[in-house]
Amino acid sequence: MPTKPTGDEDALHCNRLLQGLPSALHAALRSVTELVVLSAGSMLGAGAREANSVYFPLRALAVLLHTDDQGSSSQTGIVGSDGMIGLTGWFGRQHSEKALVLAGGLALRFDADQLQRLFDESAPLRRVLMGYSAELTMQAAQMALCGRHHSPERQLCSLLLLLFERGAGEDLSMTHELAARMIGVRRETISQAAMRLQQQGYIRCSRGHFRILDRDGLEKVSCGCHRSAPLRPHGLFTG
């Protein structure tokens, strides 16, 4: 569960979706948001409170997971300070998507109803969030294509680069089991792929951790799908 941080700050400028919005809208957003700490390993969207909350990460990173009725899951998106968590539920639809926090840190939490009210009243906010909805849909489509046509080893390279570029850092807390769930393969397949990458000197693996040693090497081996979801430039979709 998210916890309240100590200290206070005007954090709206730390999320790329929110930072370019008009100052008057910032004031309205500030009045209905709460600064929280997302703990690594926590699952958002699993409880009643979380299903009615929307998060804008500031210094946190989460993977969106879609789970079927048999318990199998795969990633549909990666969200850092360039996005928001809870978009599907905020649209008011029944869903089985949850967000697993990979790198803990600060986030802004909104009540979904309060954000909906501001969305209805503000054209700039509508442009930002509808634009992000399209981006997230494209990201999910790219991940589906990647999973069908690219080898697990190349997918793992792209996944590590995608997480690194969104703020996870060179040392990422992630088990082989979780990496396998995100890519949609067996854990043994990921372990074998990670061993080959480690033997080539691109990464170092230990229990529950991946460490990037050679980013350029990973880039050469990767399938390149991480480049299809670039970090948002300042001011995109604002107006």
- Walk across the major sheet and give the strand order: 2-6-4-5
Choose one word for the global shape: elongated
For the sheet with most strands, the description reads: 4 strands, antiparallel
Task: Kindly report how far apart the N and C termini lie.
Answer: 34 Å
β-strand percent reads 15-25%
> Can you give the mean pLDDT?
81
Detail the poorly predicted runs.
230-239
Number of helices, counting only DSSP H or I runs of 4 residues or more: 9
What does this structure look like?
The chain is α+β, with helices and mostly antiparallel strands and 239 residues long. It is 41% helix and 22% strand. The protein contains nine helices and ten strands. The strands form three sheets. The chain has a four-stranded antiparallel beta sheet with strand order 2-6-4-5. Strands 1-7-3 form a three-stranded antiparallel beta sheet. A three-stranded antiparallel beta sheet has the order 8-10-9. It is elongated, with a radius of gyration of 18 Å. It starts with 22 loop residues before the first helix and ends in an 18-residue tail after the last helix.
Attribute tags:
single chain; 239 residues; alpha+beta; 9 helices; 10 strands; 22% strand
What's the short story on this structure?
With 239 residues, this protein is an alpha+beta fold. The chain is built from nine helices and ten strands. The strands form three sheets. Strands 2-6-4-5 form a four-stranded antiparallel sheet. Strands 1-7-3 form a three-stranded antiparallel sheet.
